[in-house]
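Box S1 | Example of a co-folding query
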Amino acid sequence: MTDTISRRSFIGSTVAAGAVAGSFSILNAHAQAGGKKFKAALIGCGGRGNGAAQNFNEAAKMLGVDVTWVGAADWFEASAKNFGTKFAVPADKCFWGGDAYRKIMAGDADIVLIATAPNFRPLHVEAAVEAGKHIFMEKPVAVDPPGARRIIAAGEIAKKKGLSIVAGTQRRHQKNYLESAHRIHEGEMGKILNGQVYWLGSVPWVRPRKPEQSDADYLVKNWVNWAMMSGDHICEQHVHNIDVASWFIGRNPLSANGFGGRSRRESGDQFDVFSVDFDYGEGCHVHSMCRQNKGCYSRVGEAFAGTEGHYDGRVKSHSGTAIAAPEFMSGNPYAIEHFHLIKSIIDGKPLNEAETVAHATMAAIMGRISAYTGQIVRWSDVMLNEKSRFYNDAVTPSAEDFELGNIVAPEDNVCPIPPG
Ligand SMILES: NC(=O)c1ccc[n+]([C@@H]2O[C@H](COP(=O)([O-])OP(=O)(O)OC[C@H]3O[C@@H](n4cnc5c(N)ncnc54)[C@H](O)[C@@H]3O)[C@@H](O)[C@H]2O)c1
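Box S1 (continued) | Returned holo structure for nicotinamide-adenine-dinucleotide
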């Protein structure tokens, strides 16, 4: 693995996805795929899992493909059973507990949708690849550097097995983003010199501890407030915008140098705010800022300045010369990502987004580690240099600990402080 990959190879996967998006009509796709049958299963039957399953059904309908839901797995019995009732999963194929995912892997699903808390992603994706399943996996795909590298490795095995892996970074399937990426990569705004990426919003939820809950149940329920479960919100939410920066610029950041802090959160151990300078090399820096504080200015998006134009939701050439983009599929990107997934399987041309989403996740993790430690974190530290203190910087408890039942929840409202 190289520190910076070549622009051509980096953009290649995007162009391939774009070609999938742009080069056919839905009617043709329907004619080719119509009548095909898929067996699907869901691991992580929460808000997004239910939404992703619905989106999968919508995509299958567009393609005329029949879907049978043959399995549901969740940490909690009620969540697995509720999904089972809604999606007609046989009662004896609804599983719960730390090893529920294994029962899905042993079943006959062709494809698994994985939408648990992010810390479980590498373990579950490895098991799905091992079991020969096609995969839709929600972002982020890891919470620490070893986890992101595990996803890359699983993605490589999936390639050899001809399996498709699509990630929940839906902007990569969204018409306006695909058009902008195409126009930027074709040079409409020249070379990108700098940018800003934002996720400024509020804490998504707090699910306070109940007296009857075990430590494990509490952490799984309230995962969005715990860094070892979510990666912290720079990873859990802001990964979308960091992904766009790396996609548009055409390479991964060389380093992250950031800070952050906490003053208002009411639960867990995460920061309220992060401010990170991502150095993309060649003089290009991107300022990433994310905040979860209600009542403050909200903004989610990206902006870039180039030698011959700028981007702020739309590409603008300073010379006024616009580059035409192919006709990308329009509609709900949450359904289109599944459309691309199903179509890639039917066409026998596997789409594999494991590496791109793992890279974006890794960049976000670098930002978090930098803010927590007060140190600069280099791409080489987390990807290449086994002697770096950050290379094996793994969170605890791990996904494996949850399955074994070795969980002691840390104290609420204690967050990292960079050492003096
Ligand atoms: N792409 C997007 O725009 C988008 C939007 C929202 C959420 N997400 C992502 O989707 C994922 C899920 O988020 P959510 O909002 O649905 O959270 P949620 O808490 O509503 O759902 C997560 C579900 O996973 C279950 N679960 C947790 N650990 C499990 C395990 N080991 N085995 C089986 N089930 C387990 C939980 O019990 C819960 O039902 C997260 O990674 C989140 O970042 C993506």
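The first strand starts at residue 37 and ends at 43. DSSP finds 16 helices and 14 strands in the chain.
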